[in-house]
Specification:
three-stranded antiparallel sheet; 472 residues; alpha/beta; ten-stranded mixed sheet; 43% helix; TIM Barrel
Length: 472
């Protein structure tokens, strides 16, 4: 009976609708936000603490991109698995202590596939152990053998139920096998499709599910291709399309255009043209709208529909979701446990049942019953735009913020507001600080990578050194 009582207590704790530590972490996050982003649609503090990313764990890349957000010294650093795993452990432990038990975290640096698959797998396992949902960032020029070695253990069994990857494809990138210097975004269509097909094959052969994001840097040169990228990629298997208007950050030798000729509004309009409808980015807000825009939705056949519109009924549904499920943990949780948590949450607030049914009927009507009957399959796909800031603005803004000073210069003041609202944090356990990603890339990366180049120098013979020189 004692053992049964202990098991029941563990079951009760595991299936609680909300996690008290997570709720506390979100409350802290909400309190930290500037007043101008404390809007009804704000996700931070209501359903998430924000995204997180690694830094200094594998800065090197084997592509040359224009622009490149990494400092000039990044490619002088040797990729070292022990260093990567050690740093990921330290950074995730610190994030867990400061930001609570759950968050999405990016395994990011240079090119993740330069890590040995076993080191890559170890890093992902560490991130999951600290409650993080990891996503590996790559240029997408990887092979199926690498993917299977990452996903399967020595006996051939899956070591992960699911993998999340972000593949970056655009004409600013040079070095891809088969098309080292693409002349148009259309040239990259088979490479985007091939990357997604690797994961479809992995799921078919080994049962490992996946989440794929497609990243694209947008410059004046490829702005006009964004809509076609969206149209071509809609059925490839990507669950997210993320676009980043280029900024003056990182290696100055890679700045080839006047990136400020491209505005966020122009990029978003191109995304909408590709989707074929207006995308309301105010229903859900991640930090500051000057930094992030997002539209969550799904395809039924060739048409995309939002999960929620800006109608009063849908906004009431959003607010009810925040109240009833905002503090619930979904990541790294068995489906049966999630179902039990949802059931307990519904028992506490039965009103969510008729609201959910009403939302379902409204959404079905929006799609159209005939359209649903004809296509049936629903494919969740979201669209995101991340607008990074120029280093020339971030450096003085951050320097003043560390001294508790608000700038009276309108441009720097706006930069400070955006930094204070940042959705994307990086951890520095050695100084017990969290910094926005723009600060990491604009202010901290150059010195960090110079130090790493001394700690982990490249050891190459003359022939390989000449080849590596084309990368740096």
């Amino acid at each position: 009976m004692k053992a049964l009582g202990s098991w029941l207590r563990r079951l009760e704790r595991a299936t609680r609708p909300v996690d008290p530590e997570f709720v506390e972490a979100m409350a802290r996050r909400w309190d930290e936000l500037p007043e101008h982003v404390k809007v009804p649609g704000q996700v931070l503090g209501r359903h998430a603490v924000g995204c997180e990313g690694t830094h200094g764990v594998f800065p090197r890349c084997n592509f040359t991109c224009t622009p490149c957000y990494h400092s000039a010294a990044a490619n002088a650093v040797r990729v070292d698995g022990v260093h990567t795993v050690t740093q990921v452990e330290a950074q995730m432990a610190f994030l867990r202590s400061r930001r609570g038990p759950a968050a999405h975290a990016q395994l990011i640096g240079g090119e993740v596939s330069l890590l040995e698959p076993e080191d890559h797998a170890a890093a992902l396992s560490i991130m999951r152990r600290y409650g993080r949902e990891p996503m590996s960032f790559t240029h997408g020029d990887i092979d199926y053998d690498y993917l299977t070695t990452l996903a399967l253990d020595a006996s051939g069994r899956p070591r992960f139920r699911r993998l999340s990857f972000a593949g970056h494809f655009d004409t600013t990138m040079f070095g891809r096998r088969g098309i080292r210097r693409p002349e148009s975004e259309a040239d990259l269509e088979p490479y985007r499709r091939r990357f997604a097909a690797l994961f479809a094959r992995l799921r078919a052969e080994h049962g490992v599910s996946y989440f794929l994001a497609h990243n694209m840097t947008v410059t004046p040169s490829n702005l006009g291709s964004v809509a076609e990228v969206v149209r071509q990629g809609a059925d490839m298997g990507y669950s997210m399309f993320s676009f980043q208007p280029a900024a003056f950050v990182g290696n100055q030798k890679r700045w080839k255009e006047d990136y400020r000729d491209t505005s966020g509004d122009q990029v978003w309009a191109e995304i909408e043209a590709g989707v074929g409808c207006e995308l309301d980015y105010t229903v859900f807000q991640h930090g500051d709208l000057r930094c992030n825009r997002v539209a969550y939705g799904f395809y039924v056949g060739p048409k995309w529909f939002p999960v929620l519109s800006s109608t009063p009924a849908d906004l009431a549904t959003r607010d009810a979701f925040y109240r009833s499920f905002g503090g619930m943990l979904f990541n790294n949780t068995p489906p049966a446990v999630v179902a039990a948590r949802i059931a307990r949450a519904v028992a506490r607030r039965p009103v969510v049942v008729p609201m959910a049914l009403a939302w379902l009927i409204r959404t079905a009507r929006r799609v159209g019953w005939a359209h649903l009957a004809r296509h049936r399959r629903i494919r969740p796909v979201s669209f995101v735009m991340h607008s990074f800031m120029d280093a020339a603005d971030v450096a003085p803004a951050w320097e003043l913020m560390t001294r508790g000073i608000q700038s009276d210069d309108p441009q720097i003041q706006a930069t400070q507001e955006r930094l204070a609202s940042c959705h994307y944090a990086m951890a520095h356990p050695e100084s017990a600080t969290l910094v926005p990603a723009c600060v990491q890339h604009s202010v901290l990366d150059p010195d960090e990578n110079r130090q790493l180049a001394e700690l982990l120098p490249l050891k190459l013979g003359p022939t390989r050194r000449r080849a590596a020189g084309t990368v740096g």
